[in-house]
């Protein structure tokens, strides 16, 4: 991929726990182009959030540690930056919206104060300039009477409004990349749709790249241009969105898509479910991490972990089996 805005190579992150070392991310590599929207999907614990938090230096240490990899952003490796250096990237050039807005905002500071702080820190605005800009930002994300609401505290906002504040904060310094970590998880469906539409509109207006982490394959279908499917700390399939939904190749992706209710089904069929549970990663997998749950698994799957290989233009899969024929790809 050429002209990458963000280029992550061989990222590995581990956590020390009383039960042993958890290998949360195991050699993840991906790129993000300018103005591109990428969806990252997979079960809880597959490494989606940890991957993005690692790139931004937000892994709590201890117990977490990035043990290998590079993350190039405008030619600089984010993983080698000091805390002071990466603070000038976070918020200013890469914005992040966290999963739970109710716990992400400081309960004892007004909304205005929390919006003004990054503007003064990163852009050097005076308090009055930051106040004006904060009101503009609240208006931009659809909060009425924005100027008056700056004096409110987080408990005076609903979950949907709090998430809008988080989006306004993430976009306050016009970042080149917005990372949204399951931003609609705690919200009801109507508000979810409003948040997705809001981010789409702001993405188009501001021309930023977006990484959208989610469990919701439906959101990704209508929002992203490219999808990365993660499992067991690995990217196991990567493809343009239409290819992935039209021709999934990895058994796990096939299972995820099969578990979605369809409006075009004429027969009343039970939804597909993937049997078993995700792996507990106290050891870095040497075999395919999905093999214990896979109906196509063959001898090689239990011995070697497949690498991402191109199966058609722009479509890469980490699987030893051709799921169309049930035979080995090699």
Largest sheet report: 8 strands, mixed
* Global shape: globular
Oligomeric form: single chain
Judged by helices, strands and strand pairing, the structural class is alpha/beta
How much strand content do the residues show? 25-35%
Number of contiguous helices = 11
Q: Helical percent range? A: 25-40%
Low-confidence stretches: none
Estimate the mean pLDDT confidence.
88
Question: What is the element layout, followed by pairings?
Answer:
Elements: E1 4-17, E2 20-33, E3 37-41, H1 48-55, E4 64-73, E5 76-77, H2 83-87, E6 94-97, H3 101-104, H4 111-123, H5 127-140, H6 146-149, H7 159-171, E7 177-181, H8 189-206, E8 209-214, H9 217-223, E9 226-231, E10 234-240, H10 241-246, H11 251-258, E11 309-312, E12 315-317, E13 321-322, E14 327-328
Parallel strand pairs: 3-8, 3-9, 6-7, 7-8
Antiparallel strand pairs: 1-2, 1-4, 4-5, 9-10, 10-12, 11-12, 13-14
Write up what this structure looks like.
Strand 1 and strand 2 form a beta hairpin. This protein has 11 helices and 14 strands. Helices cover 30% and strands 25% of the residues. The longest helix has 18 residues, at 189-206. The strands form 3 sheets. An 8-stranded mixed sheet has the order 6-7-8-3-9-10-12-11, sandwiched between helices. Strands 2-1-4-5 form a 4-stranded antiparallel sheet, with helices on one face. A two-stranded antiparallel ribbon has the order 13-14. Helix 4 crosses helix 5 (127-140), helix 5 crosses helix 7 and helix 7 runs parallel beside helix 8. The chain has 330 residues and is α/β, with parallel strands linked by helices. The chain is globular, with a radius of gyration of 21 Å.
């Amino acid at each position: 991929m050429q002209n990458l805005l963000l280029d992550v190579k061989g990222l590995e992150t581990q956590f020390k726990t009383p039960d042993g070392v958890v290998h949360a991310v195991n050699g993840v590599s991906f790129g993000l182009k300018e103005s591109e929207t990428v969806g990252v999907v997979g079960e809880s614990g597959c490494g989606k959030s940890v991957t993005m938090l690692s790139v931004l230096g937000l892994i709590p240490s201890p117990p977490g540690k990035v043990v290998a990899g590079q993350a190039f952003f405008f030619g600089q490796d984010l993983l080698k930056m000091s805390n002071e250096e990466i603070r000038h990237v976070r918020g200013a050039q890469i914005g992040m919206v966290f999963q739970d807005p109710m716990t992400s905002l400081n309960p004892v500071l007004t909304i205005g104060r929390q919006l003004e702080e990054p503007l003064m820190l990163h852009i050097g605005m005076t308090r009055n300039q930051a106040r004006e800009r904060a009101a503009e930002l609240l208006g931009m994300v659809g909060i009425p009477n924005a100027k008056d609401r700056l004096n409110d505290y987080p408990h005076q906002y609903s979950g949907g409004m709090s998430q809008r504040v988080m989006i306004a904060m993430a976009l306050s310094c016009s970042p080149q990349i917005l990372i949204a970590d399951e931003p609609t998880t705690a919200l009801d469906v109507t508000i979810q749709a409003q948040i997705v539409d809001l981010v789409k509109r702001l993405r188009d207006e501001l021309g930023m790249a977006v990484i959208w982490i989610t469990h919701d394959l439906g959101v990704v279908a209508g929002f992203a241009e490219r999808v990365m499917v993660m499992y067991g700390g690995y990217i196991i399939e990567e493809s343009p969105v239409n290819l992935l939904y039209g021709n999934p190749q990895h058994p796990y992706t096939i299972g995820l898509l099969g578990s979605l209710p369809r409006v075009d089904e004429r027969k009343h069929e039970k939804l597909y479910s993937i049997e078993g549970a995700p792996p507990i990663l106290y050891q870095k997998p040497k075999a395919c991490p999905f093999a214990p749950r896979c109906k196509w698994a063959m001898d090689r799957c239990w011995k070697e972990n497949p690498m991402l290989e191109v199966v058609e233009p722009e479509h890469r899969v980490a699987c030893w089996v051709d799921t169309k024929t049930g035979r080995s790809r090699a």
